[in-house]
Inverse folding.
């Protein structure tokens, strides 16, 4: 196994230690780079290969960015390596279940634009998911040319989380996009996360991801049109890999308590000073949160968004737990039915 070639596409000691100690004579490792219908593209020592989705799924569900161990004979996946990081959301539809978006990311660029689409509450939502995933967040404010004072928006974004890195740029100017190459070095995997039309494809092109389709913004509301339709890994001239994600208008949070508590650390800290541990923070006697809101110590927009996101993830977390319990009971029922069937066959 050529570790040097694999390191160029994100291979790390974390993955190496998961391989069997007796070597990989009858198997190879490859990374999922794209999923197009019935075919899955994989990056490995020999370059890019395409395999039927059934072969990739033989080791279980996967996401773009995952590492798979393949049988050298037929490219059938025999193992999906444990993920170092995982970005996921609530799947679309009424049924609550987690949907992996991308695996093994080092950095997530949370992309927002400096026009009418700039929204602090939406950035906080993406920030909570990024922190929950285990990847490092960097906020990128694009379309700086469409704003009279982009520096003011940058300062607002920086206040969302202690130590949060924020870059402001016009992605059409390649020299401005160079500021992001710090996170795009050899073997580093970055992803673009943001709403439709904020300039992700333009930014990806500026970083050297190839020629991705872009579109103009709409005059009536300043919003861009959706261009990227699937997730895919792109090799960058800087030596890193970039994952371009489809734009997301509404990203529902799954179980995401740790990420939210981290993003809204000041809310958690102030709430700890309430007189009663079961304080509802709604005018209760001795409520530190109410006092902080009234004095201006706690920003009301921040607190309102904290309540919204926390309630959303708590609801989805309970629903996910109920789903897991149903699946567990169903699995026991299937196992019991199979055992009964086998027993009856032996008795005949």
């Amino acid at each position: 196994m050529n570790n040097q070639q694999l390191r160029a596409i994100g291979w790390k000691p974390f993955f190496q230690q998961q391989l069997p100690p007796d070597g990989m004579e009858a198997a190879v490792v490859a990374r999922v780079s794209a999923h197009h219908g019935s075919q899955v593209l994989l990056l490995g020592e020999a370059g890019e290969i395409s395999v039927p989705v059934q072969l990739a799924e033989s080791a279980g569900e996967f996401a773009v960015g995952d590492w798979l161990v393949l049988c050298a004979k037929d490219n059938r996946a025999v193992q999906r390596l444990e993920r170092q990081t995982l970005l996921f959301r609530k799947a679309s539809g009424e049924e609550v279940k987690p949907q992996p978006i991308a695996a093994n990311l080092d950095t997530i660029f949370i992309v927002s634009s400096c026009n009418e689409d700039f929204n602090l509450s939406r950035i906080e939502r993406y920030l909570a998911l990024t922190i929950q995933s285990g990847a490092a967040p960097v906020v990128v404010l694009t379309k700086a040319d469409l704003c009279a004072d982009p520096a003011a928006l940058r300062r607002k974004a920086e206040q969302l989380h202690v130590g949060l890195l924020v870059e402001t740029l016009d992605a059409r100017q390649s020299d401005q996009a160079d500021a992001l190459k710090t996170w795009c070095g050899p073997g580093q995997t970055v992803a673009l996360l943001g709403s439709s039309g904020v300039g992700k494809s333009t930014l990806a092109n500026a970083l050297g991801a190839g020629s991705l389709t872009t579109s103009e913004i709409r005059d009536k509301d300043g919003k861009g049109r959706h261009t990227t339709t699937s997730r895919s890994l792109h090799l960058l001239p800087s030596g890193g890999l970039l994952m371009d994600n489809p734009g997301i208008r509404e990203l529902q949070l799954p179980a995401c308590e740790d990420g939210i508590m981290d993003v809204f650390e000041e809310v958690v800290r102030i709430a700890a000073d309430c007189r009663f541990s079961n304080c509802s923070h709604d005018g209760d006697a001795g409520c530190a949160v109410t006092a902080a809101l009234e004095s201006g110590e706690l920003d009301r927009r921040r607190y309102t968004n904290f309540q919204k996101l926390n309630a959303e993830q708590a609801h989805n977390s309970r629903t996910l737990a109920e789903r897991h319990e149903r699946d567990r009971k169903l699995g026991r029922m299937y196992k019991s039915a199979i055992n009964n069937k086998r027993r009856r066959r032996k008795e005949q």
